[in-house]
Amino acid sequence: MNLDKPCGQLLLVEDDRRLARLTAAYLEREGYAVEQLADGDAAAVRIPEAQPDLVILDIMLPGLDGLEVCRQVRHQYQGPIIMLTARDQVMDEVLGLEVGADDYLTKPVQPERLLARIRAHLRRAREFAGTSRPDSSAAVSDAPPGRQPIETVVQVHEQDREIWCQGRRLLLHRPEYDLLALLLSRPGHLFSRDELSLALRGVAYDGASRHIDILVSGVRQAIGQPAVIKTVRSRGYQLVRHWPENNRSG
Description:
This protein is of the alpha/beta class. The protein has 2 domains: 9-129, 3-Layer(aba) Sandwich (Rossmann fold); 136-239, Orthogonal Bundle (Arc Repressor Mutant, subunit A), CATH 1.10.10.10. 40% of the residues lie in helices and 18% in strands. It is built from 9 helices and 11 strands. It has helices at residues 17-29, 40-50, 66-73, 89-98, 111-130, 150-153, 174-185, 193-201, 211-223, and strands at 9-13, 33-37, 54-58, 81-85, 103-106, 154-157, 162-165, 168-169, 190-192, 229-232, 236-239. The strands form 3 sheets. The protein has a 5-stranded parallel beta sheet, sandwiched between helices. Strands 6-7-8 form a 3-stranded antiparallel beta sheet. α2 packs parallel to α3 (66-73), α4 packs parallel to α9 (211-223) and α7 (174-185) packs across α9 (211-223). GO terms for molecular function: phosphorelay response regulator activity; transcription cis-regulatory region binding. One of its GO terms (cellular component) is protein-DNA complex.
């Protein structure tokens, strides 16, 4: 075990008891405390109660399935949720992100890959907890009408993990918030999918995953202004520097 790496309290929700024991034993050897549950009903109660550092949540569970568990607990639990799926990868990824999961892995999962994702998400959560930046809600623009800097229209409230646009709070899932906050940190910068995947998931873009594309679609829908995030074909995504002049959200 590497004593230098961060440890944390994990909640593993997996109904395959043998797999759960093996996974928990591996993670415990790596320095994590692991609580195990085997059904969705218990998980929906335990996650808000225990507030673990991270949840590993299988989709196929007795009682409530993992998607419904995630949907129910998301407003009470702000930590990372990694979903495990043995079904159609793209569909489960879409559904998982829609209910607020941070990441997904397709079973069977290599322990080293799961560990890498856990470390990446816990590191990001701790970095967020230990850092802050000026609240953009205080920004004042003297730009001409229709040429307002994007950060004066779309504003990050980091303490509350909220983003506001034209006076309304955007309804964003945690991964969508993280993506938009990252884009807002560098308006005009062209983020490659690899850059975004490394920043948001801790892993390089594999050339096939639609994780980033799904998040971008969700953010565009929440803002109500697709032109705010440009797609640069074969390269990535770019947040515009100024709020679009001729296309205003209602």
